[in-house]
Structure formats: C-alpha cells, structure tokens
Amino acid sequence: MTYKYTLDRTSKKFSCPSCGKKTLVCYIEVETSRYLESTLGRCDRESKCAYHKSPSGNIPITSSVLQKIEEPSCHDDTVIGSYGRNYSNNNFVQYLRQYFCTTDIEGVIREYFIGTTTYWKGATIFWQVDHQMNVCAGKVMLYNGKNGKRVKKPRVFINWMHKVLQIDDFVLQQCLFGIHNLCDYKKGDTICIVESEKTAIIMSLFYPSYLWLATGSKTNLKLSVLKPLKDYKIIVYPDKSEYKSWNIKVEAFQKMGYTIICSDFLEDFKACEGADLADVMI
C-alpha cells in the first residue's frame, strides 16, 4: 500500500531536533518528492535518540502512476564482477586478514559477493542479491582497516551504488544480505540473521555450517524480506539492547506461521550497548 507521505529513501540527512546530530531522515510527499517540515522525520540513532515524528493525515493513496514508480529496480548482473577486485585496497578485507586465513577470506568474498570501490579510498560494497539472483542493491560502506569499525568522522560513510553510478529513477527495494546463498540449503535448515553485513560475514567464517544473513539495519527486520524463509528455521540475533524491539516483531512473525526465535544471548553477555556477535567472537 502506498501512503501520501513516506520517509526519504535517499542518503540525505538533516539535523535531528532531539539529539542535534545530522541523522534525521525526513518525510517527503510521495507524488511530488517534496520534503515536509524539518521536524517531521526519524532519527537514525535508533538506540540512543529514537526521535520519530510522523506527519498527520498520512492516508493511503492509489494510482497507476505511483504503482509504476514503485516497481523495484535491479542492477545489471555484470556490475558485481566490475567491482570484484583490488582487495588489497579494501579496508574491511584487510581487517579480516588479521584473524582469518587467505583461503577462508577468498571463499567468503566469493560467497557474499564482497566488492571494492574507490568511491571512498578503502571502501567496501555489500551487494544485496535476492534468492532469485536479482542484484537489488549495493551498499557502500567505509571501515577502519585496523579495528574493523565503521568510519563515522567527520561524517558517516554510507551510500548506495545506484547513487554512485548516478542511475536515475532507481527504486530501491532491499533484500536480506546473503540470501542468494539460500539455494545451498534445504527446507527446514536453520538460518541465522544478524543486523550488519560485517557480522554476517564474520559469523559465517566462525560457523560456516549455518547460513548467516543480515538485515542491514535495525528497522529492516520485516515481513517483506523474510518471505523466502517461510519454510526454514530462523534464529535472529539482535545487537545488545535491541532484543525487546526485535522480539516484538518475532512474536508477530510466529503468529503468521514462521518458525522463528529471537536470541537474548547478547543481553546477558557483558558487552557494551550496540555490541554484536562479531564483537564478542573477535
């Protein structure tokens, strides 16, 4: 269903009225792409700020034009190979070399279609390829090659390949990162879901017998991305302090017939807020 107003899908951020950080995703009017007033939006600092003010009168609208606009886009299949090299200049891959052997790293690069781009020096591309092998998206992120943390100063370095490639009218519709590997597993197998792409990759190196997937964000654990996993056993591992919000969603999925549980492992573990499984394992 399409609504009159929606959160902006571009990477543009504004100053949050609550925390003051430039992390506010503003609402736009769907038909005109016009931004609403600057106080209407959701802060990306979901755990530490959680500011969210939505516009009033956000009624459902339907039109053939809108339906055509919202048809999801895909990248050409050849795009992954175009960025499948230069790993000596990939900060994330260099970080992995501190803990894992070359053979295993090369294997996980192939398995998860990890890419490299010079858009930012040392940046990584996490391609989102769905279970039907459609290249839905490519998320560009910059990591520190020594400690494996995301670079957040002087700003957060996250972008999308359709923006980098300047593809006009690209309609982003995400899938679970790594779900293209579902073909290697049979119905009834256990699938593990974490939040970050980095964590899914590292956990697959520690526990390769399971398929590790990533939502890419706290808010992307939703029915639309889970549908291909209806016949599988699912365990979700929220980051530290996020168990409550993810478990509410999991309980709703259970009522829809999904075999899914939410692990509270990190809640009982002595780790800082926001820590994930990769932090604990490393």
Describe this structure as you would to a colleague.
- This protein has ten helices and 15 strands.
- By secondary structure, it is an alpha+beta fold.
- The strands form four sheets. Strands 2, 3, 4, 5 and 6 form a five-stranded antiparallel β-sheet that branches. It has a four-stranded antiparallel β-sheet with strand order 8-9-10-11.
- A hairpin with an 8-residue loop joins strand 5 and strand 6.
- The termini are far apart.
- The model is unreliable at 64-69 (pLDDT under 50).
Oligomer: single chain
**Mean pLDDT level:** 92
The total of beta strands comes to: 15
Termini gap: 42 Å
The secondary-structure class comes to: alpha+beta
Strand content: 15-25%
The major β-sheet equals:
5 strands, antiparallel
What does the radius of gyration come to?
A: 19 Å
Unreliable segments of 5+ consecutive residues: 64-69
Helix content: 10-25%
Approximate shape: globular
User: How many helical elements?
Assistant: 10
What's this model, at a glance?
Helix content is 24%, strand content 21%. It has helices spanning 64-69, 79-82, 91-96, 102-112, 161-164, 197-206, 223-226, 243-255, 265-268, 277-281; strands spanning 2-3, 5-7, 24-29, 34-35, 41-43, 52-53, 60-61, 114-117, 123-129, 135-141, 158-160, 190-194, 211-214, 233-236, 259-262. Strands 2, 3, 4, 5 and 6 form a five-stranded antiparallel sheet that branches.
